[in-house]
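New to this. Explain the following:
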Amino acid sequence: MALDLHALPKLRDGLSFLYAEHVRVEQTTEAIELQDKDGRTSVPVAALGVLLLGPGSTITHAAVRALVDNGCSIGWLGEYGVRCYAQGLGETHSARHILRQAELLCNAETRAVVVRRMYGYRFGYQPGAELSLNQIRGMEGVRVRDAYAAASEQYGVPWVGRSYDRNHWNQGDPVNRALSAANACLNGICHAAIVSGGYSPALGFVHTGKQLSFVWDIADLYKTTITIPLAFRIASESAEQVERRARLACRDAFREQRLLQRVLPDIDALLDLPVPYEVEAEQSSEDGTYGLGLWAKLFEESEGT
C-alpha cells in the first residue's frame, strides 16, 4: 500500500518557532530571507515549525509557498504578539483527525470524557468520577491560582492578578506583559501543531465558540509548567524589553522541554485516536469516489434507533 507521506507531517522534528516584525520575507534558493533596515538574514525552512509575523511585516507569495511546502505554519500576530489574526494552513491532506475531533465533540458523553482527560492531564491524575465538571473546573481554578502564587513567591515578583489593556499596553506591569508574550508563543506552537496534525483549531472541548478554542484547550495543558514560571522569572530579572526576552526564553524552554515532540501525541491520546489506520479509507480515489466510513456508521446508528 502506498502511503501519503504528507498525511501526518512530523512537527516534532521542527525547530520550534521564529518571531519577526518589521521585516520583508522573500524566498531564496533553499530558504527564506528576512530583510529589514539592518540587512538580510537567511532562514532555512525545512525544519522550521512555525513562522510568527508581527506588525510591519510583509511576505511574498513565493515565500508562503516555500514555507507551506516544507510543512511550516505561518501566524500573523498583533502588536507584542498578544493577538493572533490569522494562521496559514499546514500540509496535512487527511481529514481523519478532524472527523474524529468533530465526532467526539458532537456527542455530549464523549465530549465530557475528553474534558475530563484534559483536566486529568493538567492535574497529573484522573479526577474522580463522582466529581461534576463544575467541581473539576473549580479545582482547576485553584490549581492555576496556586501556580501564580508559587511563581510570585519563588521569584519575588508581586502578583495582583491577570490583567492587561491592549490599548494601553505599556501601562501594564512587567509580569503581565511577559505572560502575554509567552502565551502568544505557546498558542502559536499549539496552533501550528493542531493545523499540521489535521485537527481544527476552532473545535474546542473546554473552550467553545471561538476560532481558536481548541488552541486554548491544548495550550492550557502546558501553561503552569512552562509560561507561568518563565514569565515571572523574566519579570524578576528586569523590567526592560520583557516581551522580547520572554519570546527568546520560550524558544529555549520549548526546546528543553521537547514541546514539539509532545503536542501531537498528547492530542492523539486525549482524543483516543484509533489505530491502526488505513490511509486509503479516508482519501478520495481518482474517479472521485470517497471513503464513507463515518457516514455509514452514522446511518447505522440512525437506523437502529
Remarks:
- Residues 1-11, 276-292 have pLDDT under 50 and may be disordered.
